[in-house]
């Protein structure tokens, strides 16, 4: 054995330099060896790069990319929540409580809307009140973030249009590049009404009437005056603070693409969490943001109108003072204030005169986004925890483009909305459905990237860079909006805007190979509207004398979208559509499952072709 160790290595003999090598030959040899090494390393590097590309390609192949499009308040973000519930129920459940401040804000803003109307009535009954400039309260600087109450039929009953079925106009005319002025949607604009003037107005017992029927008569009473004075100032502070806490994003003039560049799976943050938009400037917070501020604001009200609950406020959560971070403290204090005001808020919402006033003014809060007035007693409590149903109903406007990355979790069947199991796609989908083959298992590990965009006109330019490398687009068209106008441009009917936008998308050359899926959304609201007697033909002249029932209307509108797809697609494409109410999570789970399967199958076909 030792002999074999001692015997020279044949390879070493082979590559050893010649024994009598001259210096010149040696230099030449070393240079040749160095060159050989360089070439070898270059080859290794290429192999490594190819492998990486291959891995990336494999990952890309497996990643499904979906873009959600549609006008503002069409239900895109709500659809994302449904996807999250289906694909990543654990992370959805973990995020529930972080929606609390949005829900508080939604609630506060609904009450403020009512107070605004009351305040206007009081001012009308006592014009001296509104002329006093000293009553003015600064407007919120961050109304961009919170829910926009879209202008609707209640503001305009004359708006008529005929659905667009033939192309006219450029992209800019189609709302793709129109820069609209930043609106201040639904921010309460009236000054708070001071109690003494409210009292005077109440004493005058004014009435706002639209008819002579007593049930249509609004009577401003001292109860309203007291509610106005007790609720308005603290709720404005709640609004200011919550908006500040949520970090109302302002669109950057230099970057129409919002946070897109920064959004990656690793950086993923839920949009409702603070700082969700990395470059967003924080709005200036309202002056009263401290604990003392809250208390001072409420004490001021108390000094004017003594309430039986005044003493409890003082002690609320003060024990934990200083322990929390400032932002938490703000949200907790907002909660405390809402809890204190719970009875008054309920009294206001349940007041029959207030209901009459809202009816006269055609303000249908229950049909607006972020409606929680029927849940005051549940929400305005210290123990309130948002439910998944609350979260899908919460309204937080999207700015720019948000990227959501879901790695399908391994989930128990019970965790999936029960409707997902044992479903039959034919029952739920309208028209040409995506049919299901095989079992409906969630596929753990598959990465889905879903882009949610801001749907307001000023956000639409930011969509364009996302039109490449897509598997599918889910387009949301809220079909209940036939009698409403765009918040950002009150001249434009919302249904008309949706049809024009749809036409732009279907006719896009860049998107010719992309699967389009249409969600004819807000069917529940369509039903409600028609049920209360709104006539579609009054707003959509082409509807003619067709039956004014939700089913016929939905079918008619679906046909309008289908016609556009057939006429304007650059190449033949299938028309996939679903009637949805995406706040109904059970029904939407079924739709989401059908969509998922359809997209995956198409994706697979594409990959196989490649
Ligand atoms: N009743 C009802 N409400 C809905 C439906 N879809 C969405 N909503 C509500 O409408 C509001 C707006 O929905 P979002 O999902 O925020 O709308 P969006 O398209 O993301 O709007 P932007 O972010 O402004 O582009 C939310 O309060 C939702 O709860 C629906 O089908 N029925
Ligand atoms: Mg959104």
Could you describe the 3D structure shown?
Pfam families: G-alpha. This is G-alpha-domain-containing protein. Keywords: GTP-binding, Magnesium, Metal-binding, Nucleotide-binding, Transducer. It comes from Cristinia sonorae. With 610 residues, this protein is of the alpha/beta class. It has 20 helices and 8 strands. The protein has a 6-stranded mixed sheet with strand order 4-5-1-6-7-8, sandwiched between helices. Helix 4 crosses helix 5 and helix 6 packs across helix 12. The longest helix is centred in the first third of the chain and has 40 residues. It is elongated, with a radius of gyration of 31 Å. The two termini are 58 Å apart. Bound molecules: guanosine-5'-triphosphate and magnesium ion. Magnesium ion (MG) binds next to helix 4.
Mean pLDDT over the full residue set: 73
Main sheet characteristics: 6 strands, mixed
The low-confidence runs, each spanning 5 or more residues with pLDDT under 50, are 129-160, 162-193, 205-212, 249-329, 413-441
Order of helices and strands: HHHEHHHHHEEHHHHHHHEHEEHEHHEH
Number of strands: 8
Q: Count of helical segments? A: 20
- How large a portion of the residues is in β-strands, by DSSP E? 5-15%
Helix and strand content put the structural class at: alpha/beta
Binned, the helix content reads 40-55%
What is the end-to-end distance? 58 Å
Q: How does the overall form come out from the CA principal axes?
A: elongated
Q: Name the bound molecules.
A: guanosine-5'-triphosphate, magnesium ion
Instruction: Trace the largest sheet across and list its strands.
Output: 4-5-1-6-7-8
Radius of gyration: 31 Å
